[in-house]
Description:
Keywords: Transferase
Structural class: alpha/beta
Protein name: Polysaccharide pyruvyl transferase family protein
Order of helices and strands: EHEHEEHHEHHEHEHEEHHEHEHEHEHEH
Mean pLDDT: 93
CATH topology of the largest domain: Rossmann fold
Domain Polysaccharide pyruvyl transferase: 70-345
Distance between the termini: 43 Å
InterPro entries: Polysacch_pyruvyl_Trfase
Shape: globular
GO molecular function, one term: transferase activity
Amino acid sequence: MGKNQKIEMSKYILISGFNIHDNNRGTAALSYGSLFFLQEKSFLKKGQQLINYRYYKNPFKSHNRKNSEEYFQLGGDKYLHTVFNVLFVEKWLFDKLGIILPFTNFGQTIKQVELVAAINGGDGFSDIYDTQTFISRLFDIDLAIRLKLPLILLPQTIGPFESKNNSLIAERILRYASKIYIRDDKYIANLKDMGLSYEMTKDLSYYMQPQRWDIDVIDDSIGINISGLSYSNKFRTLSNQFEYYPLLIERLIFFFQEKGKHIYLIPHSYNYVEPELNNDDMVACREVYNNLKNKANVILIDKDLIAPQVKYIISRMSFFIGTRMHANFAAIYTGVPLFGLAYSYKFQGAFEANGIYGHIALINNITAFDIDNIIREVDRVYNDSMKK
């Protein structure tokens, strides 16, 4: 495992960012995949348990006092995942004074952690969304560094960093990490400049298998993932970059209707009960569907699906157009021809790492005049894929 490796196996593995119930089915897919990845790489061993910490402020709420437990079956082995609730005072004591109370769940379990493995949302080791998002995902990593626990950066896109300070924080973490896995080549030059070793591998979502569910998919259908982030055009530092995205989606639907195809509108990051403001794909998909003057052959996937079920519906498409990176990964890893509507360089790196070139269009700050060119590119890729 590299530096800081313990001689004896400890009881716990802390997967930072682990949440199979995340609104973003892509992030949830990373969590599912991380289990199989860590087991395959022999970091997760039989008899160990998975843990996370959840920090809360109100001790009078009963759900804050009860830890949550869930079992996962990996091959022939069963693993327990526990989320320990930690009062914010404990977090403050550790953050400010380095004090760990030995009689609490946190104090007793942190001493038995074998390693910290960080997901960071797959592309959250970056300030692309904003500095707050980057920093908010680093507490477990900081915990590992301060307590000298082994740290693994699970396969992800590193960078870009607009802020020099954020870049320095990232470098400190990268230099400490016992193992760095990457899913594309976008930061390799930087890692080489630092003299750091790394291993390129597939995205964690590759390791998550699709789960069949009760739906009859029409043959030769087109799947379109609509991003609530882009559709709202109000998401953090990416605000006001996607004015013509709704028109692009409408034109794409019409384009495939003209070809006589059935089109499935597939949300990939959403909360079915409490939508996330300016970032909910279901809200965007419903609005697109409701605004269509012609709904012929258009099917809205309006259902609260888990990540493996979303991967299944995408796997049944004959062609897929995705704006969420992990919606595209679901297509890539199930062999579905695709075209990516990209808002970050992570798309190009991820596509090319999987041998796919010329299948993306950047949608940041496009104008109405760019839409025709994008549709021509989609048509080219679609026609090429149908010939194979």
